[in-house]
Amino acid sequence: MKKLSIIALLMTVIGMLLWQPQLASADELTGHSHEQGLRYLISKNALVKDAKGSYRPDDNVTRGEFASYLTKAMNLEATSDIVFKDVPDTYVHAKDIKLAASAGIITGYGDGLFKPNAAISRQHMAVMLERAIDYLNIPKGTSTITFKDNAAIIKDYRQAVAIGAQLEIIKGSNGYFMPEKNATIGQASSFIVRLMQLAGDPDATAPNGGNSNGGNTNGGDTNTGSPKYAIKEISNGTLVGNQGFSTFEAAEKAVTKNTQVIVQSDKIVKMSSGYAVTNNYVALKSETINDSLAVAANTEMEYLSSDAIQVKVRLAGQVGYLKHADVTLIPFSMSKGRSYYENVNGEIKHTLYDYKTNKYSSSYVFGKAPSFMKQNEKYYSWNGIYFSNGNGSSKGNAYNYYQFLPARAQTQYTAQELDAYIMNKLAEIESTGATLYKDATKKSKLIGLGQTLKDVEAKSQINAMLILALAQHESAYGMSEQAQDLNNLFGLYVYDTNPKNKKFDSIADNINELVDKFLQPNYITPGGSPGKNFANGAVVGSKALGFNVKYASDPFWGAKIAGHYYRAEKALGFKDANNPYTIGLTTTNGLNVRTGATTSNSPLFTYARSGMPVIISSSATNGWYEILSDKLYTGKAFVSKDYVQVINTVK
After folding, report:
1. Domain ranges of the chain
2. pLDDT by residue (tens digit) across 466-500?
3. Model confidence at 575, in pLDDT bands (50, 70, 90)?
4. Any bridge partners for residue 301, and if so which?
């Protein structure tokens, strides 16, 4: 009996051992390279088993399926009367396709077909994803990322691919994108889960308890007892020593000097002071304004603190958190170089440092230097407003006039003067011999634009010189492919079957579209369009305030636009700067702008946050300033003097 019992027990154990692997292998997604994305789509009821009980992760995904995945992941609800000839109401994904079309994610083909059962190529998928990025208001800026097979990507699709790669939603292999290759359901699921992670969907967070810090954890000994963290000391610009600890907390408690840092796998994860540099494009969720900000790679930010999981940073006053994998921490004493400002012959010049090559990469001039800046000294600034030299002996605030001049200002230059400047500038860039600018004086789409700019200024109350500066910057002085081929100075619109091929009938139509569909409703009018939180001050500005907060990931985009305005002014005699507007900043949240100079007058609009630039059009009367309305409005607007601080601008 005893032997029989032992045999029975052994048989049971053997049976259990044999059964467990069968349980694990019963789920075809376990261990799949795209498991996280696939399970995400399942959680959204976007991915279901076929008749054979399979999720088909390695099958090619169709256009209809991918549209359906996006619809369900984004929870699209608004629908319109858009229909496709080959998508009847009985089609399994008909409703989702219609919702995606209504949201502008898909557009179909010119013959009214959508081809829902056709396998989708990776480049077509990239364009749909960029439209989803725009719909979700995910900051994207612009990108110059290229793949080894970039020439194989349809020319008009390349920017969508670059944006997707910059955001790390889509990835290539060994430097190749393989644009014409069909994507699998598994690959599609990974693209979508990365998209929704950027959108802040909690269901899309990484598995393993939400820790996506490249394997970093915040505690616990490893089974081997190997130290996971080390304390090292900065000595003559290098790290020495290697005191090991099994947890971040233990290492943190052992730090006794400001010269010590905590490292993990030779990467600094905590220091007493220094700065953080983005390794790639990131979306920084600002706690300051409760919004996501696009931040380009190579951006320097103030380091505030860090733990095992994340780094707390401040960018132009915007406080937020980033993963360790997103940034490199650099103690001041180990810095090999930093971006800096200097006074060069009375002008402020900004020189940028490239942390990938550890070299100074480029520079630009964007205005007059403030009076406190001494020549032959380097100045640093976290926000482009407050500057200090290395030892803090020379410092001060400086608001560049062109960078913080509200858009409702009017330039004093005539259409003829603008045209003369444009031709002189085109001759200048043509003379450089650069291929891009060959025959610029004959081919540029900026030629003869003066009257169009002045007409827009009169109709829309937006500074003509500001629009010209934007056009110069975004279209390579009217010589970019989009400008030349599509009359598109600003890269407006992308469609899945015809990306960036919305050809405008004229440059005037393109400018009016920019003004009426983008600047006016979203960036200038306080509050912006419903659901779009883009209005952070009606100036090009910086990451602290203005268009630059949301318009571009480059933190110096606003300063570069200001530089175009400044150089035009310099060439034309500084008419605007010599007769400047008075500019103030609001000092309180929820400030009402009224139609009259009393609290009994109706509010015209409200500034939700403080620090908004305003043009003061008359001196204070009875405690009120008359200002130019940021809302398109022909009447007078007033704001209490108690809540506006006049600033001195450098011009």
Report:
1. 35-204, 229-334, 340-397, 415-554, 582-650
2. 999 999 999 999 999 889 999 999 978 745 555 55
3. very high
4. 276
Cα separation of 533 and 84, whole Å?
33
State the first-to-last Cα distance of the chain, in angstroms, to the nearest integer. 102
Nearest one of 138, 135, 77 to 106, comparing CA atoms? 135
Tokens standing for 415? 């259409």
> In angstroms, what CA-CA distances link 82 with 100, 107, 550?
10, 9, 31
Class of domain 229-334: mainly beta
Sequence length of the chain is: 651
pLDDT confidence band for 122 (50 / 70 / 90): very high
Residue 275's DSSP bridge partners are 302, 330
Confidence of residue 10 (pLDDT cuts 50, 70, 90): very low
Whether the per-residue pLDDT at 213 is higher than 50: the answer is no
Kindly report each contact of residues 254-261 with a partner whose C-beta sits within 8 Å and lies 24 or more positions away, as own/partner.
Answer: 255/231, 257/233, 259/233, 259/234, 259/235, 259/333, 260/231, 260/232, 260/233, 260/234, 261/231, 261/232, 261/233, 261/234, 261/329, 261/331
Identical fold at 229-334 and 582-650?
yes
Q: How far is CA 508 from CA 54, 246, 547, in A?
A: 54, 64, 22
Domain formed by 582-650, architecture = Roll (2.30)
The set of residues, in sequence order, having a beta carbon less than 8 Å from that of 615 and lying 6+ positions away, is 405, 406, 408, 409, 581, 582, 583, 627, 628
Q: What pTM did the predictor assign? A: 0.73
pLDDT at 621: 84
